[in-house]
Fold:
Amino acid sequence: MSKRAGNQGVIRLTMPADLRYRDVAVRAVAEACRLVSRNRYAHGSHPRVHHSATTTQTLDLSDRFAAEVVSAVSEIFNNIAIHGYGGEGTGDVTLEMRIRGDRLVIVISDQGSAFDPSQVPLPELDALPEGGMGIHIARACMDELDYTPGPPNVWRMTKYTAGSMRRPRRVSSPT
Structure:
């Protein structure tokens, strides 16, 4: 993690676009969520983390903030690996997380196939589909979600903590 102005950090991780690496991405995102929670409670409140005997902290994933961020990133990672690279694991995914006080900004980029999110059909929820829900889950979980086709393809996601002075919910993509 590199230090930025105001003691805010950036975490970057590049990994193969292979579903076997999704858990690596998810664990990194969960840790970034913990850091956002720790920033939020830095002035006297008690964070929702547990301390182990080794002083390693693990995130309570029942925390809505973390659960939603992890779900969104997991779905986007799946889509990149499966659709962007055709399930071949032949490219990379770069995950960049910026801790910004009351929010976490995540940028996910890849060199896989681009697509038009406006062409993704709305899922038929009455049919309980097995697939085709990833982008819709990410939209529902994040406060801001933007996609820019590439190369590189770039997803920019922002999640605000519950008590932040958040901006209005905005989800956009090129149409």
The chain has one domain: 2-172. The CA atoms of residues 38 and 134 lie 29 Å apart. The two ends are 35 Å apart (CA to CA).
